[in-house]
Amino acid sequence: MLRILGVIGDKWSILVVGTLRDRTLRFGELHRAVTGISQRMLTLTLRQLERDGLLTRTVHASVPPRVEYTLTELGSTLLTAATALGDWAAAHRNEIENNRRHYDEAHPPRARR
Amino acid sequence: MLRILGVIGDKWSILVVGTLRDRTLRFGELHRAVTGISQRMLTLTLRQLERDGLLTRTVHASVPPRVEYTLTELGSTLLTAATALGDWAAAHRNEIENNRRHYDEAHPPRARR
DNA sequence: CGGAATCCCGCTTGATACTG
DNA sequence: CAGTATCAAGCGGGATTCCG
């Protein structure tokens, strides 16, 4: 079970899958769309997702090379399930941030003695 | 958003929350219930969850000390959302493992040259 | 353009020992 | 029992370079 949920344990995976929600994208487009991801991590993430069958990788033999990534049916179903968590996060964002503030006020960092 | 989803990005968090689904547990009980977690990580995880308001920490002044952890209402709602993902993982577990096998067969590890 | 390979630093985590 | 403190190690991941 953990091996499966590892799919989403990696934060980049959900972001990449989410970015491909309703359109096929090239490597470079994904790189620009998913802000903050390095080329290395994008490559590794895409390999994982392809291996799991969540997306397909299509190479068009041309110059310059053109590689497109498209969400599979399976990938779409994951997105549906993950959306529940995304909605939860959005709905409780303020509440959680308030909780953190209160906690931090009540539990100040240990002072130097 | 990422700061919020970080709640579940840490694999121990979901396991701990899930373990507290329907019962209050003491530190030691959690330690035994969540197999593989170190004392250190359990402590850190519990602090995070408490800070976010997903569970409450109750100290009973007695000898020996007795500290109980209980899921909050907020924690329960997270569990509900997370369950959607858990169900997805369970439902597609075989499919994904098949995909991985096929991928690994088609993409053997690079041989030494 | 889309990667693969290498180097390497830092953060996370485990192991261990100590304490209220 | 339920932690905290400390240290060392492993590896995740960024930066860089090179290739088809």
TrEMBL record, chains A, B:
Q: Which UniProt keywords apply?
A: DNA-binding, Transcription, Transcription regulation
GO MF terms on file? DNA binding
Which Pfam families does this UniProt record tie to the protein? HxlR
HTH hxlR-type domain location, by residue?
Answer: 1-97
List the SUPFAM superfamilies hit by this protein, alphabetically: Winged helix' DNA-binding domain (SSF46785)
Protein name (Swiss-Prot/TrEMBL): Helix-turn-helix transcriptional regulator
- Superkingdom is Bacteria
In its UniProt entry, the species of origin is given as Streptomyces mobaraensis (Streptoverticillium mobaraense)
- Which regions span the lipid bilayer? none
Q: Would the keyword DNA-binding turn up in this protein's UniProt record?
A: yes
Fetch the InterPro entries from UniProt.
Answer: HTH_HxlR (IPR002577), WH-like_DNA-bd_sf (IPR036388), WH_DNA-bd_sf (IPR036390)
